[in-house]
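To: structure desk
From: M.T.
Subject: fold request, one chain
Message: Could you run this one when you get a chance? Sequence is below, nothing fancy, just the single chain.
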Amino acid sequence: MAAIIDNDKRAQQKARAIASDIYLYNKARIEKAVESDTFFESMSEFITEGRDLFRSSVLPELFKKNFYDRAIVDRVLKPMAHIKSPIW
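Reply: Done. Structure tokens follow.
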């Protein structure tokens, strides 16, 4: 088992890696969800699974810093900014 991450930089890297994987493997689903303004409902299972993985990989105080949710916005939602959607 990998060591628990105990610093901000590595925690941010882990959060971005998880979010990037969600984007990579679900791009078409994410596009449809953004178009229909159902992103959080449609992606809930993947986001929760990623959050659980992140939580288990970092110290509790690092989990509380919201790195994972910011990574979801930066790595999953922002690349979809070109899509016409009621979200924007």
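Reply (cont.): The radius of gyration is 13 Å. Let me know if you need anything else for the meeting.
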